[in-house]
Automatic annotation (TrEMBL):
Belongs to the class I-like SAM-binding methyltransferase superfamily. RsmB/NOP family. This is Ribosomal RNA small subunit methyltransferase B. Coiled coil: none annotated. One of its GO terms (molecular function) is methyltransferase activity. Pfam families: Methyltr_RsmB-F, NusB, RsmF-B_ferredox. The active site is at C382 (nucleophile). S-adenosyl-L-methionine binds at C259, A260, A261, P262, G263, G264, K265, E283, D310, D329. Gene3D superfamilies: NusB-like (1.10.940.10), Vaccinia Virus protein VP39 (3.40.50.150). Residues 166-440 form the SAM-dependent MTase RsmB/NOP-type domain. Keywords: Methyltransferase, RNA-binding, S-adenosyl-L-methionine, Transferase. It comes from the Bacteria. GO terms for biological process: methylation. SUPFAM superfamilies: NusB-like, S-adenosyl-L-methionine-dependent methyltransferases.
Length: 440
């Protein structure tokens, strides 16, 4: 299976099967076995590039297609986008981009759509260009959406919240690759070992346990680490944990982590606290809860206790007012992670935001009861919308909560004027997170 065929199959799993691109691609590369790294790199670029630019590719294809691209059968639509990406972004010669893409379509439907794909791509090859976006000054949301292949409703939200220039920079950053960041208790020792193995590694800019790595796979890092423990975790996620409980570092404490799977923040909390502490990790889904408990055991973190329960309701066995800190890492639309999950641009809809906000408010209000008097409750989402961020906090404040100061030494450049955490790939190089630290 060559890179184009592998990418085509992965894109079909994403669109037709609802898979996450990262997992589908990893599985496909693993099952394909040993291959030329250039082929694996091309497959990765084709998958992520096609997803990131899907809406712009559709706009470029539209003048040459008698039917709207969105109304075509999935294999034909995926083939057209894949071919258009090669023509418009990679600069692949037309004979290769068109010929191999048509062959992919023909193999799927025995030629029914192959002729159509061939005609549309050949027409595009004669005039290979994206449509010009409207001017930023007169139609900022339209410009951001068209220039960076973003759904208009997301562009409108970011322009209204952040302003046209920041929205454009953010959308552009979301179309780039996400950096690889690790978290390690023995951060400096890990950096030294990685550098000794020829891996470009450096301490992260803000998180004290963070390590930024360039040009190496996780498998290569694991070999170079030589047994030193580490976890792959974006720096923004590490900062959320530090905002929630940074002042408890080295102290014996009880911390509640709601909606805890896959466990990165719960494990980070356990590493921060003194022996004898407890981190109660609550997860709704039984399979995820089981996996979290197994991973905590594998990592040697006895402080982590997993409870399978609905955090929007009373949690069995927990006493209200018994925790020194509470972290609500709520389910969200994930708009801060589009670099890693570009398929979310194609799956999310405007109505998702108010629907998610209802659940987020329910969970935050429910788990807040478990914080002792004066203990912080930190609300966090890996999404970038006012409905899931500032408006949730505004509602909690109207219910009697107030903002609490961040732990001492917390980096000021990721805090808003209100004192909330807001990380943007365009500013900080990290995933997009919003978090607020509250106290009653």
């Amino acid at each position: 299976m060559n890179a184009r065929k592998l990418a085509f199959e992965v894109l079909r799993r994403v669109e037709e099967g609802g898979a996450y691109a990262s997992r589908a691609l990893d599985a496909a590369l693993s099952s394909a076995g040993a291959r030329d790294p250039r082929e694996a790199g091309l497959a990765t670029e084709l998958v992520y590039g096609t997803l990131r630019r899907a809406l712009a590719l559709d706009a470029a294809l539209a003048p040459h297609s008698k039917r709207p691209i969105a109304e075509l059968d999935a294999p034909a639509r995926i083939a057209l986008r894949l071919g258009a990406f090669q023509l418009l972004v990679l600069g692949t010669p037309a004979h290769a981009a068109v010929g191999e893409t048509v062959a992919l379509a023909k193999a799927v439907d025995h030629g029914r759509a192959a002729g159509y794909v061939n005609a549309v791509l050949r027409a595009l090859a004669r005039a290979p260009r994206f449509p010009d976006p409207p001017p930023l000054a007169t139609d900022p949301a339209g410009h951001v959406a068209a220039a960076e292949a973003l759904p208009r409703w997301i562009a409108e939200e970011w322009v209204a919240w952040l302003g046209p220039d920041e929205a454009l920079a953010l959308a552009r950053a979301m179309n780039g690759p996400a950096p690889l960041c690790l978290r390690a208790v023995e951060r400096d020792a890990l950096v030294d070992r990685l550098r000794a193995a020829g891996i470009a590694a450096a301490p992260a800019a803000r998180a004290p346990g963070g390590v930024s790595v360039t040009g190496a796979s996780v498998a290569e890092i694991a070999r170079a680490a030589g047994g030193l423990a580490f976890q792959v975790q974006d720096e923004a996620a590490q900062l959320v944990t530090l905002l929630a409980a940074g002042e408890l570092r080295g102290k014996k404490a009880r911390v509640l982590d709601a909606c805890a799977a896959p466990g990165g923040k719960a494990f980070h909390l356990a590493e921060l606290l003194a022996p004898g502490s407890e981190v109660v990790a609550v997860e709704l889904h039984p399979r995820k809860a089981d996996a979290l408990a197994r991973e905590a055991g594998r990592r040697g973190l006895p402080a982590v206790r997993v409870i399978c329960a609905d955090a929007a309701k009373a949690i069995p066995g927990l006493e209200p007012g018994s925790f020194d800190a509470v972290l609500v890492d709520a389910p969200c639309a994930g708009l801060g992670t589009l670099r890693r999950h570009p398929e979310l641009k194609l799956r999310r809809a405007p109505e998702d935001l108010p629907r998610m906000a209802v659940l987020q408010r329910e969970i935050a209000a429910s788990v807040a009861r478990y914080a002792r008097a004066g203990a912080p409750v930190t609300y966090s989402v890996c999404s970038l919308s006012r409905a899931e961020g500032p408006e949730i906090v505004r509602g909690l404040i109207s219910d009697g909560w107030r903002r609490a100061a961040p732990p001492g030494g917390f980096p000021a450049d990721v805090l808003t004027a209100d004192g909330d955490l807001l990380t943007l790939p365009s500013r900080h190089g990290a995933d997009g997170f919003f978090a607020a630290r509250l106290v009653r």
